[in-house]
Amino acid sequence: MSGNIYIYMFVMAGVTYLIRVLPLTLIRKQIDNQFIQSFLYYVPYATLSAMTFPAILTSTASVIAATCGFVAAVILAWKDKGLVTVAAVACVTVFIVERFV
Amino acid sequence: MTENIQSRKAVWRKGVQDGIPIGLGYFAVSFAFGIMAKDAGMTVFQAGLISFTNLTSAGQFAAIGLITGGATYAEMALTQLIINLRYCLMSCALSQKWDPKVPFFHRLIVAHSVTDEVFGVSILRDGYLNPWYNYGVMSMSIPGWVGGTVIGALCGAILPDSLTSALGIAIYGMFLAIVLPPAKKDRATAAVVIGAMVFSTVFQMTPVLKEVSSGFQIIIITLLVAGVAAVIKPVEKKEGAEA
Predict the structure, then answer these.
(1) pLDDT tens digits, residue range B199-229?
(2) Cis amide linkage into residue A54, ω under 30° from 0
(3) Global pTM?
(4) Cα–Cα distance for residue pair B230/A39, rounded to 1 Å
(5) In terms of CB atoms within 10 Å, which end of chain A has fewer, N or C?
(6) Phi, psi for residue B212 in degrees, rounded to 5
(7) Closest approach of B16 to chain A, Cα-based (Å)
(8) How far is A63 from chain B (nearest CA, A)?
(9) How far apart are the first and last CA of chain A?
(10) What is the largest CA-CA distance in chain B?
């Protein structure tokens, strides 16, 4: 390490907090524009989906096991199972499949 | 007034309930972060402090590489900005769910914990967002994230690889559980989910595009897919708080 670890931390935390706090404090009114409203409605689905796939396939030691975990998670999420159930079953699936591949 | 306090408590409890899976998922992911931070030469305290002050997975993992590589502070700032810019979109969306009557300082606290998952559960609440709901979620998510980091840094080496490998998928399982149920009910949302996954795959496989940092890829895909969806299928205006 060449820099000071605490200065790195301060820079990281500062930038990250500003990104989060500025929109929440500066936008004080309801936005009436229907396009922006709709856009903001779709944002979480686009972001979370883009982060999940294809990254999920390389999230564990074996791609085959991760694919099985992915399929298991999709099936359970589709059946409206809760966050913990879906995450836990995905982990267990990966753990079991990795014993065989 | 007593009624007010009671409803606060109830809302807080609901937040805690929804925060449990998030905290567990965070524990698994930040455990891996703790191991990496320790390997990179940080102390347990430093690793925990990074997690407490940042609360962000991708940004923190990237930071380890930058710190060990001796990056400049400016590079660190820029990388964090790009990777975490998606929180800006999320905070914009949350600002539209905010009850104008709630005192200002709550915005300053809630903002710190705007993460993908916390955002996911809070944006899907009915009506205005009550900050006490977020405080409930935070009282699970923050200990999960910081605790996982500290324990990972302390004893990561003891855990068998097979377990840490299986834990790697936890966070993505959570994401799927957040996006799929609403996608099932609404075709436009389903198209956004599938479209974002397809674009993200294209990004990963195309020679020049895959050099784009993962945080920036996500911003481009989000702007594109959510933008197109908003043009083709605008959401109907709802009364009051809905974004």
Answers:
(1) 999 998 998 888 777 667 877 888 899 999 9
(2) yes
(3) 0.74
(4) 5
(5) C
(6) -65, 135
(7) 13
(8) 11
(9) 39
(10) 61
